[in-house]
Model the fold of this input.
Amino acid sequence: VNLLEKLQKYENELDNSFQEIEEFKNTLYSKDKLVENMDEIIKIQKDSIVMMQAELKELHQKNELQVQTIGHLQNAVVEAKKCIDQMGHKTVSDISEQWSTISPAVYSQRNVHDV
Done:
C-alpha cells in the first residue's frame, strides 16, 4: 500500500509539473507575442517620426517662402511709396515751374483776378 501511495504522489507531482510547464510555455508565448508587437509598435513609431520630420521640413520651407514673400512685398510697398512721393514732388515742381513762367508783369497787377 505504501508503494501505491508513493506512486500516486509522484504521478500527482508529475501532473503538476506538466501543468506548470504548460503555463510557462503560455507565458513565454505571450511574452514573445508582446515583444513582436513591441517591435511592430517601435517600427510604426519610427515611421511616424520620419513622416513628421518630413512634414516639419516642408512646413519650414513654406515658412521661409512666406518670409521671403513678405520681404518682397515690403520692398514693393517701399518702392511704390517712393514713386508716389516722387510723383507728388514732381507735380509740385511742375506747378512751381508753371508759376515761375508767368511774367512778373502779372504780379504787378493790382487785381489778380484780371489775369
